[in-house]
Amino acid sequence: MPVPAVVLPVVWAVFVYLRLMNQQRRHVEYRRRIRRLLCLEDLFQSDRPVTYCSLNTVVPILRLWFNVELEIKQDFRLNRQAMHALQRLMQREQDHGWGTEFEVLIYVYWLAHGLSYRVVSRVFSVPKSTVHRIIHKVAQFIWDNLHRAIVFPKPADLDTVGDGFAQCSGTPVLNKAVGAIDGCHIRIKPPSVHRLDYLNYKGFYSINMQAICDSAGKFLDIFVGYPGSVHDTRILKNSNFYLARNYPPNGYFILGDGGYPCLETPICLITPYREPVNGPVQRKFNYHQSRARSIVERAFGIMKTRWRSTLFRALEVSPTFAPQVIASCAFLHNVCIDNGDVLEPDNDVAVDILDPEPPLQEAPEAHETPGNATRDRLAALISAQAPH
Predict the structure, then answer these.
(1) Please, are residues 200 and 314 in contact by the beta-carbon 8 Å criterion?
(2) Phi and psi of 24, rounded to 5°?
(3) Model confidence at 2, in pLDDT bands (50, 70, 90)?
(4) Cα torsion at 112, 116, 118, 123 (round to 10°)?
(5) Rama region for 256: left / alpha / beta (φ>0; ψ in -120 to 50; rest)
(6) By the 8 A CB rule, do 227 and 197 touch?
(7) pTM to 2 decimal places
(8) Cβ–Cβ contacts within 10 Å for residue 117, how many?
């Protein structure tokens, strides 16, 4: 069958078009490689870092950031002072990339807006793959440098912390308390394997964050990653804090709720008397002990309120990455407190937290000494105080 005369010119035109497009693509790739080689040449010939990434400073979020007269807390959940402090803590040597300032902005915005890579990509006008890479890079850096913001107090500061707990409790008898410990369940989307391991006693899937805080609500130590089904006592006894046995120092103690064992050694951990209490002495002690330790529940509430879009619903990241996200929220919590960026916990967040775990019924281990005698002594001292 003869080919119509009009077909040959069309086929030839398509062939020429494809050939030209292929040449154009090769030319673009060639120019890209030349730019990279020039950057490398500049790097080798000078000691200055190479910057080959440029920001689109006309996007609204960056115009907001670079206008120092405008408040950023609504968009980033941090004020400017806290954000600048965070950027200083995150400083590191970097010979390429977007720069620490921009990477921190992306990470904090991601936390503030529910962990959506797509949203952050559009807001900052950068590729979604770049956002993903920056998020994991910053989270890993914070995870590796938690000690820059989360650290136990120095010996010279212990009495100040104790005085704070005495004020919180309403009695000077608890002025040797230098920490309050508790666990907090962070909702996650469970993995397909070992799904039930993440189902906690409250009936939802979670990862547990154990934290010790001071009388100002700052986290002194965190231990994140155990599935929600694991009891607080089990997490405590596997935590670095418990195994190191360096805190609290002799003569001081930390406070915990009834889900923990009352211990004298290897760490001094004072818990309330179990209900129903035996008389007014125990009842009065429980009242003051509860007032003091509630600061850690308040700290969890503040952290969840600040990062409500992320922490008050199931984390949409893998369970292996979730501990880094949770730890960075605690890290930022301390940065905010250090820089006067405070807020009140939302009522519904507080209700979600105030639900203590039932105690674990088990005998003390061989290396543990019960703290009942210390608790009885403190209770007697509180009871002997003249009523106000």
Answers:
(1) no
(2) -65, -40
(3) low
(4) 0
(5) beta
(6) yes
(7) 0.84
(8) 18
Structure tokens at 329: 């929220």
Question: In terms of Cα–Cα distance, which of 293, 181, 292 is closest to 232?
Answer: 181
The DSSP-derived string for 197-231 is GGB-TTSSBEEEEEEEE-TTS-EEEEEEEEETTS-
φ/ψ of 178, rounded to 5, equals -125, 25
Q: Using an 8 Å Cβ cutoff, are 259 and 181 in contact? A: no
Tell which residue, 210, 211, 212, has the closest CA to residue 161: 212
The pair of structure tokens assigned to 204 is 């939802």
Query: Looking at per-residue confidence, does 49 or 121 come out higher?
Result: 121
- Token pair recorded at residue 109: 């915005």
Q: Give the span between the Cα atoms of 214 and 300, in whole angstroms.
A: 12
DSSP per position, 129-160? HHHHHHHHHHHHHHHHTGGGT--PPPGGGHHH
Question: How many CB atoms sit inside 10 A of residue 346's CB?
Answer: 16
Spatial contact of 329 and 315, defined as CB atoms under 8 Å apart: no
Q: Tokens 């008898």 sit at which residue? A: 173
Q: In this structure, are strands 253-255 and 269-270 parallel, antiparallel, or unpaired?
A: parallel
Specify the DSSP class assigned to residue 267. Answer: S
Q: Please provide the average confidence, as pLDDT, over all residues in the chain.
A: 88
Cis peptide before 358 (omega within 30 of 0): no
227 strand-pairing partners? 207
- In terms of C-beta density within 10 A (0-12 exposed, 13-18 middle, 19 or more buried), how is residue 358 classed? exposed
Q: Which residue stretches of 307-353 are H helix?
A: 308-311, 322-338, 347-353
